[in-house]
Amino acid sequence: MGYLKPGSLLIRNVYYLDPSEGVKGFGNILIRDGLVESIGVGESFGASSGVPIIDGGGALLCPGFIDLHAHFREPGFEYKESIRTGSMAAVAGGFTSVCVMANTDPVNDSADVTETIKSRANEVGLVRVYPIGAVTKGLAGEQLTEMGRLSDAGCVAFSDDGKPVSTSRLLRKALEYSRIFDRPVIDHCEDLDLSAKGVMNEGIVSADLGLAGIPNASEEVCVARDLSVLALSGGRLHVAHLSTAGGIRMVREAKRRHLHVTAETCPHYFALTEEAVRCHGTHAKMNPPLRREEDRLAVIEGLKDGTIDVIATDHAPHASHEKEQEFDRAPFGIIGLETAFSLSFELVREGHLTISELIYRLSTKPSLLFGLPRGRIVPGGLADFVLLDLSGIWEAGSPRYFSKSRNSPFTGTQMKGRVNKTVVGGRLVYDKEGVFVE
Amino acid sequence: MIDRILSSAALSVTSGLGPHLLSVSDLTPDSVRGILDTAESFLDLRHQTVKKVPVLRGKTLVNLFYESSTRTRSSFEIAAKRLSADVINVSATQSSVTKGESLIDTVRTIEALGADGIVIRHPSSGAPAFVSERVRCHVINGGDGCHEHPTQALLDLFTIRKRKGRIEGLNVAIVGDILHSRVARSNILALTRMGARVRLVAPPTLLPSAAEAWPVEIFHHLEQGIAGCDVVMALRLQLERAAGGYIPSLSEYARLYGLNGRVLRSAHPDVLILHPGPVNRGVEISEEEMFASSSAILSQVEFGVSVRMAVLYLLMGGGPDSGLPGLPPGIETGER
Question: How far apart, in Å, are the Cα atoms of A415 and each of A317, A418, B226, B237?
C-alpha cells in the first residue's frame, strides 16, 4: 500500500453508506490518523476532538472509488498526463485508489520502474497509486517479466494492456506463473489480426463513414481463447474493458463453471454507442470501440447480474495535437476519471442499479479483486471516502479538467450527480471548489 | 447563353448549398438538380473559342492532393481556370507534408496564403470534414479515403441524366469493390436521393458487413445483379486487393465480376456503362465494352469539368453578402 501521510478530520452532517459493511445512516464521522475513530450523531459529537472540521452539508459519504484501469503516462509521456495531474483528476472524480497500466516509457517491466512510479505518487500524495506490471518484457509479447520482483516492488496485477497477451501459450504461462503470487493477469481481449486496421466498431456507422471496422468478433475470439486457456492453466484472469454482448455472454457462462475470471467495463460502453463517432470524431475513438445499442444494453445487463464485476475508467489521456488529426491517424482512448461517477450514476437514475450496488462496483469489488485496502465506514476502517451530491448538476470539462488532457466525448455535457469532496487517509484532498489540500 | 448560365445558377444557389461540399448527404434533391442544371449551362462553353467566363476572377483555388490523381485534379484545375480563378496545385509528395507537417497546419498555411477554396483529396476518411471545421475558406471533398467522392457522383448523375433523360426510376447496378469505394458511397447516396433504384454487385469480401442497412439490393452474382439494369457502373479494383486477401486473384475477379458483351446481354438493351476510371482493362471491363456505344466513360470525364465548374461557381461565386452569385462586370459582353 502506497504510503500517504494520514490525517485527522471530523466530517459533520453526512448520510453515509458502505455496502461492504452493510452500514448506512446519518451523522458525523471522526477520523484520527487516517482511520475512522467513531461514528455518531448530535451537535456535540467530536466537539472535544481538536481535529479540523468539515461540514458535509447532507452529502452522501461512501468508500472512495478504486479504479483498476488507468493510464497516468509517467514515465515517458508526461505531455499527455503525469502522476501529478492524473492524481488530481482521480480525486476530482472521487477515486482514492488507482491502478496504473504498464505501457509507459520505459515500460513497467522492472522493479525500478515500479519503485519510481510509487515514489512519485507518494510525493504527489493525493491518491493511492498501485502499479500494474507488464506481463512480458517491453510489452513485446515474448518473454515473461520477473513477476516475483515486480510483485515485491508493489505491482498488484499484470497486463500488456493496449495489446492482448500475444499468444495462447504465453497466456498459459503467465496465468500459471502468476499463481505463485496470487495476482491476476489482466487481458486486453482483441484478435489483432481480425481487427486489422480497424479504427471504430464495424457496423452501419463505419460503413457510412468509410472507416475500417473492428468487429465484435475481435473481442469475442480473444475472450474465448482466454477462457479456454484459463481452464487449462488456473490462475486468475481479469478481462479488461468488456464491450460486446458476446464477450459478456462467455464470461457469464465461464463464471457459472466457476472459472476464476472477473471482468470490468467502462462508463463509455454503457453511456454511448458507435453513433457517437458521427458527431464526436476522434473523441469517440477508443479501443475497444463504442459498439451497437444491443451491446450497450448487454453491458448494463452484465453489471446488473454481476457478470461484469467492476466499473473501471480506462482513463487514457492524449494531447490535443494527437486527437486533432484525421480519424484513422489519431490514437485510441479517452479520459475518464472525472466523468466516471456521473456517467455511472445515470444507471442508478434509470433504475438499473441501486446506489449501493453502484458503490459496490466502484469501490468494494475492485478492492476485493486486486486485494487493495478500501475505505470502510466502521471504527478502525481506512478513511478513504468520497462525498457525493446526488442532485448536483455540473458541466463536464467546464471550466477545465484536472487531467492534462481533454480528450473526452462528454466535454460540455450536463452531468447529474457530483463529487463534492474526496478524503484520502483522513485528509481532504479535493473539494468541488477545486481546492486541493496537500 | 451567359444569361442562361446565370439565371439557372442563381436559381440553384437559393436552393441551399452550404459553404462546403463534403458529402452527398449534405445535398437536397433540389440542390443536386441545381448543380446539374448549372453544369448544363456551362457545358456549352466547351465549344466556344474562348472557353472562359470571369465569374471567379480574383479567387484562388488550391488543389491539395495527398494521393496521386490525374483526372480529378486536372478536372478541378481546368474547371477553375475556365471560371477565371487562379489555381495552385499542392501535392503531398512535394510539400512540407513530407517534413511531417500535420494536415491542419498545412491547411491553415494554405488559408493564410489567401486561398478562397481548397479541394482536398486525402487517404483518410473524414479528412475534408475535419478540415472544414477548422478553416474559414470553402472546402471541397475531392475524395476522402473510403468515404466519399461527391463530385464524381454528381458527374455520374449528370452523365446518366444526359444519356437517359432522367434519373428517377432507373435501375442502377454498382459493381465491384464497394467496401473501399468512395465513389460507391457517394453514388448510393446520390442515386437513391434522386429516386433511382440501386443494386450492389460484389463478392461479400468487398462489401461492408452492414451494407444491408443501406437502401440497396445486394447481389453476389453479376448476371443476376445487372439483369434488366438501365445503368451499370463498374468500380475500379485496386490491384493490391488480391494481396490483401479480399479476392483470390485478379483473373478470378475478372471471370466473376468483369463486364463483357456476353454478361451484359442480361442488362437492359439500352444499358449505359459507367466507370470512374482509371480502368484496369480486362479486369473490371473488357476492351470492347470500354469503347462500345453503350459506354459513357469518356463522356464522364468531359462532363466532369462542367459539373466541377458548377460546384465551384455555386460555392465560391456568390457575393459576400448577397447569398446570390455576384454578377461580375462585363459578363454580358463575354458572349453574344
Answer: 20, 8, 53, 48
Cβ-defined contact of A212 to B185 (cutoff 8 Å): no
Active-site annotation holds for A191: no
HSE at residue A390, side-chain half, CA atoms within 13 A, is 18
Tell if the CB–CB gap between B125 and A208 is shorter than 8 Å.
no
Q: What are the C-alpha distances in Å from B221 to residues A4, A255, B108, B269, B290?
A: 69, 45, 47, 19, 21
Q: Which value does ipTM take for this structure? A: 0.89
Name every residue whose Cβ is closer than 8 Å to that of residue A294 and which is 6 or more positions away in sequence: A245
| Nearest neighbour of B125 by CB, restricted to A203, A209, A215 | A209
Which residue is closest to B245 within chain A, CA to CA?
A: A196
CA–CA distance, A327 with A253 (Å, rounded to integer): 36
For the stretch A116-133, pLDDT in tens is 999 999 999 999 999 999
Q: Which of residues 136-155 of A touch B (CB under 8 A)?
A: none
Helix (H, G, I), strand (E, B) or coil at B116: coil
Transcribe A39-72 into DSSP letters. Answer: EE-STTTTTTS-S-EEE-TTPEEEEPEEEEEE--
The pair phi, psi for residue B65, each rounded to 5°, is -115, 115
- What global pTM score does this model have? 0.92
Count of all residues that appear for chain B in the document: 336
- Chosen for mutation from B120, B122, B124 (greatest number of chain A CBs closer than 10 Å) is B124
